[in-house]
Structures are given as C-alpha cells and as structure tokens.
Amino acid sequence: MRRSVTSSAPISWKSVFRWPVFLLANAALFLLVGVSTLRETYRGWTVDRQIQALEAQAQTLEGRKMKLVELTQSLSSPENVEFEARQRLGWKKDGERVFVLTGYEATSTQSAKMEDVFASTADTYPSNPQLWWSY
Predict the structure, then answer these.
(1) Nearest to 99 by CA among 82, 84, 112
(2) N or C, which end of the chain is more exposed by having fewer CB within 10 Å?
(3) What is the pTM of this model?
C-alpha cells in the first residue's frame, strides 16, 4: 500500500529530538566559523598595522642612511680632510707658521684671517699702556 502525502503520520520521539540536535549542531558550527573568521580578521589587521609601522621605520632609516652617505661624501673631500688634519692634528704646510690661541672660540668659518682675530680682540681688551693711562 501506498501512503499518501497528506496523511499525517504519528510524530515519534526520535524525530522530535533530531531537529533540536541538528539545529544545535548547526549553531555550534556557525559559532565556530564566526569566531575563526573574526580571529583571522583581527590577526590580518594587526599584521597590516605591523607592516605599516615597519615601512615607516624603513623610510626613516633610509632617510638617515642618505644623510650619512652625504656626510661621508662631504667628509671624504680633500678640503675637509685638510681642514680636519689642521684642526685636530696640528698639520701645517711647508712655509706656514702655526699660532695656537687659547681662550678664543673658533668662528663658524673654516679659515679666519689672523688680522681679523687680532682686530676683534684689540677692541675688546685694551692694551696694558692704555689701561695705565686710563688709571
């Protein structure tokens, strides 16, 4: 015999318990997939932030490297090497006389004429005979 589609079969306890278990399993699976997706999204976001921070640091270091390269090139020029040798090592050329002035601060220019140095100190400190005359 055939069963008609419209006939109502008695509902068994097995079928009643099957649907909630099925729904509960689907809800647990959905929760698991959702939590995993959120964790991976957060992890990707933190990795992107770290990449941006490292790129900014790389740009900063690249700028510092360029400044150091420029400084190295300027320090290796013959004029600068000669200036440093004169300042630090007391190097002099043949025929030159070196005067060491104490209590005098160097100017910002690399080469100062001796007349300028003595002219500026003469105005500031009067000579000994001028001091006696003023006394």
Answers:
(1) 112
(2) N
(3) 0.42
Tell me the C-alpha distance between 124 and 84, whole Å. Answer: 29
Q: Distance (Å, rounded) from C-alpha 71 to C-alpha 84?
A: 14
49 within 8 A of 56, measured Cβ to Cβ: no
The DSSP call for residue 24 is H
94-117 residues labelled b (16+ CB within 10 A) or e (exposed): eeeeeeeeeeeeeeeeeeeeeeee
Q: How far apart are CA 100 and CA 117, in angstroms?
A: 12
pLDDT of the residue at 68 = 92
Helix ranges restricted to H, the chain? 13-75, 78-89, 114-124, 128-134
Q: Are the CB atoms for 90 and 98 separated by under 8 Å? A: yes
